[in-house]
Amino acid sequence: MVTGSGAGLSRFADAGLLILISLAEGPKHGYAMIADIKEVAGVKLGPGTLYAALSRLEQQGLIEPVESDDRRRPYQLTSAGRAELRDQLAGMETLASTGLQRMEAAR
Amino acid sequence: MKATWMLRLFPRAWRARYEEEFRALLEAQPASAGDLLDILMAAGDAQLRYRQLPPATQPVGGYSTPAEIDRRRAERRVRWLTALYANAILFIVTSLVLLGINALTTPDYWWALFPIWGWSMFLVLHAATLVRGHGLLVAHLVLFVALNEGLAGIDFTTDGGPWFHWPLAATAILLLAHALYSFSVTGPLGTHAILYGLSLVLLAATAWVNSDALYALIHVGLGWGVVLLAHALMRFYRLPLLFAHLLVYVGVGSLLIAQDLLEDEGTTWFYYPLLAWAVILAAHAVAESGLIPLFRRDWEAGKRESLSRLAALDGAGVADERLPVIVARARQLRLFYLHAFVFAVAATAGVVLNLMTLSSGPWVLWPLWGWGMLFAAHAGYTFARRSLLGAHIALYFLVNAGLIAIDAIYSDGLWFYWPLGATTLLLLVHMVASRDTLHAVRAWQDRRVEALVKSSTDESGGADFPVAG
Fold first, then answer.
1. Which chain A residues are within 8 Å of B15, Cβ to Cβ?
2. Contact, B21 vs B351, CB < 8 A?
3. For residues B349 and B276, is the Cβ–Cβ distance under 8 A?
4. Contact assessment for residue A50 and residue A30, using Cβ atoms and an 8 Å cutoff
5. Residues of B in contact with A47 (CB under 8 A)
6. B35/A47 CB distance under 8 A
7. Contact A30 B14 (CB under 8 A)
C-alpha cells in the first residue's frame, strides 16, 4: 500500500517515482530526465509517458516548473514532492530489507 | 521521423500548458515506432483527464470574468436558436415534400401526417427549451396539446368507439401535477399525493366502464400506496432513502406474491421481478454504505479540488469567478457517473431476468436500446466539445441499429432504408451546418450575441439563460 498523495499516481506510478528520483539531485528538463533515468535505472521513458507523468506530478503539487527562457522547461521538486519521495523510498527500503532477511533465514 | 504532428491529438488545454516544451523534446531526438505508440497512449490519457475540465476552461486562459461567462452563455443560446430555425425550415420543407408525394401517390391515405406529427412535437420541445422561466412546463403544455390532438385525430378517423378521452385525462393529470409543482403550489410530497389521488379516480372511472380495470385499480392503489407511504415517512419521520426503498420492496413484493398465488394458472413467476429488483436494492445498499467514493458526499469536493488544480495548469490560474464553473462541472460529472452506475446495475438486473426467461426471447434488448440512446446523448453532452453534433451522431447509429434489428427480426418486407436515408440526410445537413461554412449565419449569430450580452449587462445581476450547461 502506497502512502501519501502519491497513492493516485496509477499506471504512471513507476515513471512518477523515477522522475522524482531524477529531480532529487536538482532541476532538470525533459530530455535530461530521460537520459538520467536511462543511466540510473536502465529504463528508457518514452516522451509521452514522461509528460503524462510530469503533468500528474505537477497537478498533485509534487513538482513545479522553474522559470526559464529556454523552450525546454526545467522542473524541480516541491517540498511536498521531497516528502513524498522520502516516504516512498523509506517504504521500499523496509520492504527490501524484510525480503532480504527472509531469504537469509530460509537459507 | 518527426512526431510533432501528433501534438494535434492532445486536448487544447493540455497544449496550452505543455505544447512548447513537449515540441522541444520531440525535436531533440528522432521518434521510433515505439515512441509514436507511447505518444498516442499519452494523448489518450490527456484526453481522458482534460475532458473532465469544464469546456469553458478549454481555450487558453479560459474565461475568468462574469462578463465572459455571460458571453459564452449568449453564444450557446444563439447556437441553439440557430439550430431551432434550421430545424423549423427543414421541417416545413420536408412536410411539403411528403405531402406532395402523398397527394400524388396515395391520395386516399394521408400517411404523411404521422411523421409530420411526430417531428412537430420534437420541434416544440426544441423551441420550449428557449423559453425563460417555466420553459419545461410550456414544453409539457404544448406536447400535451399536440399529443392529444393527434390521438383524437386517429380516434375519429378510425373505427371503434371514442377512446381519446382516456389518454387525455391521464396526460391532463400529469400536466396539472407539473403545473402545481412548477408554481410551488405543492411540494414534492403534495404533488405526489395529488398524482396518486387523481390517478386512482381515473382508474376507478375506467373500472366503472370496464370491470377488467378493477384489477389495475387494486394493484395501483396498493402498490403505489406503499410508495406514497414511504415518501411520507421520509418527509415526516426522516426515514432514510434505503429503508424507504426496502419498505417499498417488501410491500410491493408481498403484493406480487399474493397476486401470483391467487392466480390459478399453475405458473409461478413472482421471483423473477423480485430477484431483479433485489439486484437493484443491493446496489442501492452498496451505494449508501459509502464503500464507493462516488456516492460519498465528499466526492464532489475532491473532484472540485482536482479540477481546480488541473485548470490552474493552463497558466491563467483559478480566479474566484471561475470557481462556479468548476463547481457546476463537478456536479455534472458526478451526475453522469451516477447515471452510468444506475444504467449498468439496471442492465445487469435486466439481463439476469432475461436469462431466466429465455423462452420469451431477448426482450431486454428493447429497454437497453432506449435507455442506451439516452445514455449516449448524456455522454455526448458531458464530454464532447461540440456536444450537439456528437450526441446526434451517437443517436443516429443507435436509432438505425435498433430499427435495422427490428426490421430484420419482425418484418417480412424491408423498410429500414427509409428511416436510414432520412436520418442520414438530416445528419449530413447537421454536419455541413456545423462546419461553420455559413458565413451569413455566423454574422447573424454574432449580432445576436452582441445584443444578448448588451441586454444582460443592462439588467442587474447578469443574464439568466435557460439553456443549461
1. none
2. no
3. yes
4. yes
5. 3, 22, 25-26, 31, 35, 38-39, 42
6. yes
7. no
Residue with cell 401535477: B177
Put simply, whether A107 touches B (Cβ < 8 Å) is no
Interface contact A71-B41, CB threshold 8 A: no
SS3 content of chain A, % helix, strand, coil (to 5): 70, 5, 25
In this complex, do A73 and B29 lie within 8 Å of one another by their Cβ atoms?
Answer: no
Contact list, B25 vs chain A (CB under 8 Å): 29-31, 47, 50-51, 72
Measure the CA dihedral A42/A47/A53/A56, to 10°. 170
**One-letter amino acid of B258:** A
pTM: 0.49
Across the interface, whether the CB atoms of B46 and A30 are under 8 A apart is answered no
Q: Check if CATH label 3.40.50.150 holds for domain A13-105.
A: no
pLDDT tens for chain B, 469 residues: list them: 677 888 888 888 788 888 889 998 888 888 888 888 899 889 988 888 877 776 544 343 344 566 666 777 787 788 788 888 888 888 898 899 889 888 888 888 888 888 888 888 888 878 877 777 777 788 788 888 888 888 888 888 777 778 888 889 989 999 999 998 888 888 889 999 999 999 999 989 888 888 888 888 888 899 999 999 999 999 888 888 899 999 999 999 998 888 888 877 777 888 888 888 888 898 888 888 877 788 777 788 888 887 777 777 655 555 555 666 777 778 888 888 888 988 998 898 888 888 887 777 788 888 888 888 888 878 877 776 555 677 778 778 888 888 887 787 777 657 788 888 888 888 887 777 665 556 667 777 788 888 887 777 665 444 444 443 3
CB within 8 Å: B21 and A30:
yes
Q: Which three cell numbers stand for residue B98?
A: 411528403
